[in-house]
Design brief:
With 227 residues, the chain is mainly alpha-helical. The protein has one domain. It is 67% helix and 0% strand. Helix 1 packs across helix 5, helix 4 runs parallel beside helix 6 and helix 4 runs antiparallel to helix 7. The protein is elongated and about 60 Å long. The relative contact order is 0.17. Keywords: Membrane, Transmembrane, Transmembrane helix.
Amino acid sequence: MPDFPLSLWLSITALGSVGVMIPLALAAAAWLAFGYPWRYACSWLALLAAASGAVCLTKIAFLGWGIGLRDWDFTGISGHAMVATAVLPVALFVALLPARSAIRASGVLLGLVAGVVVGVSRIVLNAHSISEVVAGCGLGAIVALLFARLAWQAEAGKLSATPVAASLALVAITLHGIPVPTQHWITEIALHLSGHERPYVRARWKAERHYTPTRRTDAPLTHPAIV
């Protein structure tokens, strides 16, 4: 891994948080709805929602029932890797829609690289395994490339690149570092559905094949797992 300072890796991983990427995705959708046919905005949001649902399902399956792949150290698709690799290429694509095809393609490629860097930060910070990040980056890239292919022929020139790019950058800069407790929310859902008092935890799940958390009584939920 690149020998970056820890503070830089933390800043990179914060860029890929839901608190930044989802507002950025919505801002891109708003520009699409404003300057192009509505079907493009709807398609973008539908693709991202489907991928986000897949991420949540894999996390809930592990936290609630211990469903994962021990040999691959896989406990759920990395949400940071997925949203960053999906949203950053599309944000750049939307900003560059009035430009020539080669410039648009460069923007998509740059966004994909940036998303992968966010994924690498999750590995460096021990937040996810390599398999989880690869799954997240792969899923996000599929979303971004599918949308770019769908919207490639959108009529150019309806929007200027400058205000779109400036607004998207403002969203990312303003919201960077603001925490959103998505892991806690997902853990609460998993515990409610599974009936367990505590979630599955990666280290013990890997070490003990028959490990099962105690079932819920009437105790309040505490100590949500970070996986």
